[in-house]
Specification:
This protein is mainly α. The protein has helices at 19-26, 32-37, 53-56, 74-93, 106-128, 132-141, 155-162, 176-189, 199-212, 220-243, and strands at 98-102, 163-169, 192-197. Strands 1-2-3 form a 3-stranded parallel beta sheet, with helices on both faces.
């Protein structure tokens, strides 16, 4: 079987099949309806064979053995599918890497784990050394020359060269737990970590409506929603500026 989630552009697998067995299987009682609805084709006998003459009398030539299909768990598909897409995107777009603001929450942590899953797939391909295009794309992405001798020793080595994370916290709203979770996750993944404090920028923007409209005041829940929205917008702005 082929690996469902692979970094190779093309994978080919061959098998020997007996067309008569396939036709008989389609005509079994349980599948009589399928065989009955299949249009019949006029057969013309020809003195011609797709096999060479020695293969016709070769007793070792037989249909390929039956393979039991294997299926990924939903969690594995969630991990491997997006990871393959991220690698395909970064190599085709020729970007320098990924940047994720780590908040210590579930969303940013899950996204970071998917990026690290991409790094693990790339590392496995480099170790197998049967797909030189992966190593070529990796060296170009991290800014190494095509003839560079640099080789990753762990998936963390790859993450440290193309994955940047930043903790954008505020002294008043960010807890020590979220800061610790973000730091430990970045350490385990091996990403390059930045620390940005956006409290002053948020306070300046939050006070702007009160300065412009002196009578404008927020009630408790509206002020909380506005603060959360401003924080998200500042995170996007910082992300765009750092990515340049």
């Amino acid at each position: 079987m082929l690996f469902r989630f692979s970094l190779k552009d093309v994978e080919v697998i061959t098998a020997v099949v007996d067309l008569d067995e396939v036709r008989s299987y389609r005509s079994t009682k349980s599948r009589a309806m399928q065989a009955r609805e299949t249009p019949s084709y006029h057969r013309v006998p020809l003195d011609f064979s797709l096999s060479t003459r020695p293969e016709i009398f070769d007793s070792t030539v037989a249909p390929s053995p039956e393979i039991q299909p294997s299926y990924h768990k939903p969690e594995e598909e969630i991990e491997l599918g997006p990871a393959c897409f991220l690698w395909d995107y970064i190599r085709r777009s020729r970007q320098a890497g990924y940047f994720i603001p780590l908040s210590g929450g579930v969303d940013s942590c899950a996204t970071s784990c998917i990026v690290f899953s991409m790094c693990k797939l790339v590392f496995a391909e480099v170790q197998k050394a049967d797909n030189p295009e992966v190593l070529k794309d990796l060296l170009r992405t991290i800014g190494e020359d095509a003839d560079s001798k640099w080789r990753p020793q762990t998936p963390q080595d790859i993450a440290g060269r193309l994955f940047v994370s930043a903790y954008m916290g505020m002294e008043k709203n960010s807890s020590a737990d979220t800061r610790t979770r973000a730091r430990e996750l970045a350490r385990d993944i091996g990403s390059y970590v930045l620390t940005c404090k956006i409290l002053h920028l948020l306070c300046s923007t939050a006070s702007a409506p009160c300065i412009t409209f002196n009578s404008l005041r927020y009630i408790a829940w509206s002020h909380l929603n506005a603060t959360q929205n401003c924080r998200k917008r500042f995170t996007n702005i910082f992300r765009s500026q750092i990515s340049l």
